[in-house]
TrEMBL record:
GO terms for molecular function: transmembrane transporter activity. InterPro entries: MFS, MFS-Transporter, MFS_dom, MFS_trans_sf. This is MFS transporter. Keywords: Membrane, Transmembrane, Transmembrane helix. It comes from the Bacteria. It comes from Halopseudomonas pelagia.
Length: 376
C-alpha cells in the first residue's frame, strides 16, 4: 500500500511539486532499486535482529518515506522512493523466514500463497482509500495517513514478537555476509534456476500491469474506463491464482513443474494479447486478460514456498532475499526494455510478443529434468 500511494496521488501532487505526473514511473523504478539492495542484506538482518523486528524497521522506513514525500519537493520525492524501497525489500524475506519455521511442509505452497495476496490486497486498499483521503485531506494528508497506518502496524507487530521470533544469530556485518545469499543460490542449481527465472517473471508481471490498459485503448480501441476494469479483473485473477496455485502445488503438481506450466501459460497469454485487434470479441479479450493475470501475477506464492523449501535449514530468509534481488531486477528493467522495443517498432504488441517468446524459453528451461548429483 505504501509503494502505490504516491503513484495514485501523482496527478494531484505533480502541480505542487513542479513535475509531470508521467514521471511517477521513475519514482516506482527507484522503489524497486532500493528494494533490490535491501533484499540482499535482509537475510543478515533477520538473523541478527529477528524477522518481526526487521519487519517493524521496514514499516518505519516506509512511514519515513511517505512523510518525506509530504514535503513536496523533487529531492524529497527522490529520498521518499529510496526509503520506501529500502523498507519494501526485507518484508518478504522476513515473512518467509517466519513461515518456513512455523508451517507444516504439506501446507507450504498454500500458506506462502495466502501471504503473498497481501501485495494485490495492499494495492486494492490503496486504490480504494487513498483517492478519498486525498480529496478530504489534500494529497499531503493522504500520504501522512498511510504513513501513520505503517506506524500502527509496526506497533501491533510487537504483540507477536515473543511468539514468532526465532533464536537470533549474532553476527557482524561484512562484505562476506553480503555475498552469502548469492553464494547459497549459485551453489545449488535448483535455487539458481528459480532465481534466474524469477527475473523474467517479475519483468512480465510489471509489463502486464503497466501496458495492458495502454494496449487495450490504443490497439483494441477500448474506452479508458472499460480498460481499467479489465486491469482490475487481472489483479483479482492474480489474487485468486496465488491461492489456487499454492493449493495445487501442495497436493497434485510439484512446484517446479507448476512454475514451468505457469510460465508457458504466461507466454501464450502474452503472445495472444499481442494479437488483439478491434475485430476480436470482447469476451475473448476479457478471458485472455484474466488468464494472463492469474499466471503473471499469481506465481509468487508457489515460487517463494519452493525457495524456502530448497533453502538450507534456518536460511530461508537469506536465500529469499538473494532470489528477490533477481526478481526486483526484472521488475526494474522489464518495463524500460518493453518501452524501448515499443518505441523502436511503433507497436505495443511487439513488446508483448518479445516477452512471450522469452517466457516460452523460461518455461521450457524449468521443464527440463534436473541432473541428480553423483553419489560420493
Amino acid at each position: 500500500m505504501a509503494a502505490l500511494t504516491v503513484p495514485i496521488i501523482a496527478p494531484l501532487a505533480a502541480g505542487d511539486i513542479g513535475g509531470n505526473a508521467a514521471h511517477v514511473g521513475y519514482f516506482v523504478a527507484l522503489i524497486y532499486v532500493g528494494a533490490m539492495f535491501s533484499s540482499v542484506i535482509s537475510g543478515d538482518l533477520v538473523s541478527r535482529f529477528g524477522a518481526i523486528r526487521s519487519s517493524q524497521v521496514s514499516l518505519l522506513l516506509c512511514a519515513a518515506g511517505l512523510a518525506c514525500c509530504s514535503y513536496g519537493t523533487l529531492w524529497a520525492m527522490f529520498a521518499s522512493a529510496l526509503l520506501i524501497g529500502f523498507g519494501y525489500g526485507p518484508i518478504t524475506p522476513a515473512s518467509s523466514h517466519i513461515l518456513a519455521t512455523t508451517t507444516p511442509s504439506h501446507l507450504m505452497g498454500l500458506m506462502f500463497s495466502i501471504k503473498q495476496t497481501g501485495v494485490p490486497v495492499g494495492g486494492a486498499l490503496a486504490g480504494a482509500f487513498v483517492p478519498m483521503l486525498a480529496v478530504s485531506l489534500h494529497w499531503q494528508g493522504s500520504v501522512l495517513a498511510v504513513s501513520i497506518a505503517c506506524l500502527v502496524t509496526a506497533a501491533i507487530a510487537q504483540c507477536y514478537r515473543t511468539q514468532l521470533e526465532t533464536p537470533l544469530e549474532p553476527t557482524r556485518g561484512s562484505l562476506a555476509n553480503l555475498a552469502k545469499p548469492f553464494r547459497l543460490i549459485f551453489e545449488h542449481k535448483p535455487l539458481r534456476d528459480l532465481a534466474l527465472c524469477s527475473f523474467f517473471f517479475g519483468a512480465i508481471q510489471l509489463c502486464l500491469t503497466t501496458y495492458l490498459v495502454l494496449h487495450l485503448t490504443q490497439v483494441y480501441g477500448m474506452g479508458l474506463v472499460a480498460a481499467g476494469l479489465i486491469l482490475t479483473a487481472t489483479q483479482a485473477a492474480g489474487i485468486v491464482g496465488r491461492i489456487l496455485w499454492g493449493w495445487i502445488a501442495d497436493r497434485w503438481i510439484s512446484p517446479r513443474v507448476l512454475l514451468s506450466a505457469l510460465a508457458l501459460c504466461m507466454a501464450i497469454s502474452s503472445l495472444v494479447t499481442a494479437s488483439f485487434t478491434p475485430d476480436w470479441p470482447l469476451i475473448t479479450v476479457i478471458v485472455i486478460s484474466i488468464c494472463f493475470g492469474a499466471t503473471a501475477i499469481g506465481w509468487n506464492g508457489v515460487y517463494l514456498a519452493e525457495v524456502a523449501r530448497l533453502a538450507p535449514p534456518g536460511k530461508a530468509g537469506v536465500v529469499t532475499g538473494g532470489t528477490l534481488f533477481f526478481t526486483y531486477f526484472g521488475v526494474v528493467t522489464g518495463p524500460p526494455v518493453f518501452a524501448l522495443v515499443t518505441q523502436a517498432t511503433g507497436s505495443i504488441g511487439t513488446g508483448f510478443t518479445l516477452f512471450g517468446f522469452i517466457l516460452l524459453l523460461t518455461g521450457l528451461s524449468l521443464a527440463l529434468p534436473r541432473r541428480q548429483p553423483k553419489p560420493s
